[in-house]
Design a protein that fits this description.
Strand content: 5-15%
Radius of gyration: 18 Å
Structural class: alpha+beta
Largest sheet: 4 strands, antiparallel
Helix content: 40-55%
Number of strands: 7
Order of helices and strands: EHHEHHHEEHEHEEH
Strand order of the largest sheet: 2-1-6-7
């Protein structure tokens, strides 16, 4: 594998022309979209909790690249940790989330009593869990999915095959505007 080099100059590439599997997100972008710190991201990657599926780090200076699904999982992990779910149960939930197809994942609701995480794929299952007195909070994965889509739509991405930076339209991003004017 070649040594890490400086990223290519930022260039505006229409996001609509890129499929999600052609796009990856660097650590700072994944952090911003998931609402976590870079320290958390790094720790979770090093411990195998949530590893980047597009490109892992290869030595000092290399950049991890996370997929859209990875960022959704990062945001779910953050929410589970915030509610006091044990790391062991979160690891089990992450393995389960990774095994699900996108269609199933976006329709799923995760419920937890603070100790165990349950998957509910229908309103009846949610009601049944609540009637049993077990569920205390829920995470509608589809809502997290849409939140991450909205956040990433305003953040930079990287084209997986070329390494080219995909600059999104974010009026608050002064640095990207300056780069585009210079280029």
């Amino acid at each position: 594998m070649p040594e890490a080099t400086a990223p290519p100059a930022a260039r505006r590439v229409p996001a609509a022309r890129r499929r999600s599997e052609e796009v990856g997100y660097r650590g700072p972008t994944a952090c911003a979209a998931a609402g976590i710190t870079y320290r958390q991201l790094d720790y979770w990657a090093r411990t195998g909790l949530v590893e980047p599926s597009v490109r892992p780090a290869h030595g000092s200076g290399s950049q991890r690249l996370y997929s859209f699904r990875d960022v959704v999982v990062l945001k779910i992990v953050k929410r589970l940790l915030d509610t006091g779910v044990s790391l062991q149960n979160i690891r089990t939930a992450v393995r389960h989330l990774r095994s699900q197809g996108s269609g199933v994942l976006s329709q799923m609701t995760l419920m937890s009593d603070g100790a165990t995480v349950y998957e509910c794929s229908s309103p009846d299952e949610v009601a049944e869990l609540l009637q049993g007195g077990q569920g205390v909070f829920g995470i509608a994965v589809g809502v997290v999915w849409r939140d991450v889509e909205g956040a990433l739509a305003q953040l930079h991405a990287e084209c997986v095959d070329t390494g080219e930076t995909i600059v999104r339209d974010n009026p608050a991003d002064e640095l990207a505007r300056r780069r585009n004017r210079a280029g």
